[in-house]
Write a structure and sequence with these properties.
24% strand; six-stranded antiparallel β-sheet; six-stranded mixed β-sheet; 295 residues; Alpha-Beta Plaits; DNA primase, PRIM domain; 27% helix; single chain; alpha+beta; 6 helices; 2 domains
Length: 295
């Protein structure tokens, strides 16, 4: 039987349900705890979601159950939830436009979490701009490689980006890889950003063929790190910083320092749960803050 409660979130009435439902069975982590995490991380998360269309990855029956990506605002979306209508070229469902949700306040974040949207994925561009403001390199290890090898690759990739006037910041994917982000202020379009990222990944593979590749061909990936440049496409999304991930434990995508990247010798060194992330923010603040819009 569904149990519902209405709470006041900064003046907005939000209906919550089934707070005792376990969404991470391996550790007994409940929907209520998911809501608690997102509420507490909101001060550093919301600035990174601001003005970005959010694709939600929902797990209504927990991480072991059915999952679905949701781009359109679902039926029954409250009137106070902000949505933006955006073009959807190449939509798998034949849509010309999609009504995306923009998570720009705490009430919307709580509402989203209550829908068991454990993972929040965003584009590299904002809905109030006509160009990307971020560039991302998603470092994805092919077993037996792990995040340890991703850290080696990240340290080699960092000076290449610095030579091009960018200062990358690293974050864990919250799953098995590492991601490098930088401001993309010099690019006029997603096409330019993608072309730059692809070219850099190709040159990087040519200079370190034993370690990395830029193609997604699975037969080539064993023991190497894929430098995935394709997330810079205007149509692609990447997991947001501070988003939970649907793993056995409630891990989250977490900013890390370059000292931590250099010191990583075991995958557990850069594996952070929701409690770890909250403690890190308390200690370090928002390590991803330099990527926010200077304006």
């Amino acid at each position: 039987m569904s149990s519902k409660v209405t709470v006041d979130v900064e003046g907005t009435q939000v209906v919550l349900s089934n707070l005792d439902k376990v969404l991470y069975p391996a550790v007994g982590f409940t929907k209520g705890q998911v809501l608690d995490y997102y509420t507490r991380i909101a001060p550093v998360l919301l600035p990174h979601l601001a003005e970005r269309a959010v694709t939600r990855k929902r797990y209504p029956d927990g991480v072991d159950g059915q999952v679905f990506f949701e781009k359109n605002a679902p039926r029954g979306t409250p009137a106070w939830v902000r949505t933006v209508e955006l073009a959807s070229p190449g939509s798998s469902k034949g849509r010309e436009t999609i009504d995306y949700v923009v998570v720009d306040d705490l009430a919307t974040l709580v509402w989203t979490a209550n829908l068991a949207a454990l993972e929040l994925h965003t584009h590299m561009w904002r809905v109030d701009r006509d160009r990307p403001d971020l560039v991302v390199f998603d470092l994805d290890p092919g077993p037996p490689a792990t995040i340890v090898e991703c850290c080696v690759v990240a340290q080699l990739l960092r000076p290449l980006l610095q030579e091009d006037g960018m200062e990358p910041i690293a974050k864990t994917s919250g799953s098995k890889g590492l991601q490098l982000y930088a401001r993309a202020d010099s690019f006029a379009s997603s096409e330019e950003t993608s072309a730059y990222a692809k070219g850099l990944a190709q040159r990087f593979e040519n200079s370190h063929p034993e370690l990395v590749l830029h193609r997604m061909t699975k037969s080539l990936r064993d023991g190497k790190v894929l430098v995935d440049w394709s997330q810079n496409s205007a149509a692609k999304t990447t997991v947001s910083v501070y988003s939970l991930r649907a793993k056995d434990r409630p891990t989250a995508s977490t900013p890390v320092t370059w000292d931590e990247v250099a010191a990583c010798t075991h995958p557990d060194d850069l594996a952070f749960t929701s409690d770890d992330v909250l403690a890190r923010v308390e200690e370090h603040g928002d390590l991803f803050a330099p990527l926010l819009d200077p304006g």
